[in-house]
Amino acid sequence: MADEKYDFTIEQLGPCTVQSPIKLSTVHGDYTANYVDDKAYVINNVNVFDVKKPIVLDSSNLIEKAGPREKIYFDPKHVKAGICTCGGLCPGLNDVIRAIVRCLNTRYGVKVIKGYQFGFHGFFPEENYEPIDLDRYLIDEIHKIGGSYLGTSRGGGQRVSDIVDCLERDNINMVCIIGGDGTQRGSYDIACEVEKRGYKCAVVGIPKTVDNDLMFIDRSFGFETAVQRAKEAVASIHMEASSQINGIGLVKLMGRESGFIATAAALASHETNFCLIPEVPFDMEGENGFLACLERRLEKRGHAVIVVAEGAGQDLLTGTNATDASGNKKLSDIGLFLKKSIEKYFSEKKIEINLKYIDPGYQIRASVTIASDSIYCERLGNNAVHAAMAGKTKLVIGLVHDKFVHLPIKTVTAHRNAVDPEGSLWRDALDATGQPVLMVADEVAAQQKMANAVNEAKKKPSEQNKK
Predict the structure, then answer these.
(1) Which of 162, 212, 391, 404 is deepest in the core (most CB within 10 A)?
(2) Does 181 qualify as catalytic in the annotation?
(3) Catalytic residue among 95, 181, 189, 211
(4) What is the pLDDT of residues 243-289, one digit of tens each?
């Protein structure tokens, strides 16, 4: 996909003719924060692999910078805004909600802000989830608790017409939808239906995926908190393992199709000896397989810590082909599989082990954000409001090369990001763990399996997967 052409053009509801109520500056050097011009961009592809090829400066490589505009599309006095959170829990949801409400309320003077409860289900009248009228005072303390103040749910994104009917009934001019790639594909369909009806409503997404697997974006909110909490879990399991005879600590972390959390936790902890992720295949049996490698580690050091992403090793388990409400394939439990396999292997060899297994996934998802994520969420929420007030639509707010930008939903959800087994991140993780590069019986077959896994993770997700 290196040669794939992208289109970073951002769609606009119409010309911006209203003076923004936010008093900023249009000049530099006056010690006053500046407006952002629509012609301010971030270059996506900054890596130069061939000096003979010039850097492209068009919509395939220029990403529009986010931030407050001097002229906006909507008159704040007439704006009615909506917010909803969809999909699974993630650290930072309340921080983002708080930031959106405060920016609308205090910076633009918007009085009507409706919080739709339990994801897309809050738009359906028959479910009787009345929207919450939000203001800065109601939500001022919600960043101190985990979860979602508005509640969340999976599914419902396919009922596009019903959702837009609700937006029209409530006279909503802009809606901020917080959710993962499936949610954002639903957001795109909602924006298309809005456009088809000639209804002027900006649809802006704030991408939420704790797995950190959205294309182009440096990191998704909640990821750093998840890594911090995962690191704490690894530290606890290491203490257990190192205090026992042949102690083995096993931690299962989030990561359905990408192993970013597991990889980062292994790097951060300095106490992980094996990191198993979806992008890198492994065998259980054989001289070069995982179990033999684990046995050698115990012989050498007397204890071992294993971190496994939930989507790792799925080829070793029996799949069900079932899906959840979001359309995601239900995974087999790699954590319990590893636990049973390890216990059986050493029992048959009559080698005493003490294995401790933890799955802190839900504890991590419900966690309150650490400082860096709290700052990130605040800025994401603010920039989402600035984009919506300027009449920009069909976009998500993201961080690219440490700059806040507008990214078209259609482009950012075209593929999933994944850990590159040949990249520097995984190379450094191997250095940190000391594990073999490949734990397989047949390296040639494994290389092909690895390539297939990465391509599968990056390919365009199913259109049915709307959270």
Answers:
(1) 212
(2) no
(3) 211
(4) 999 999 999 999 998 999 999 999 999 999 999 999 999 999 999 99
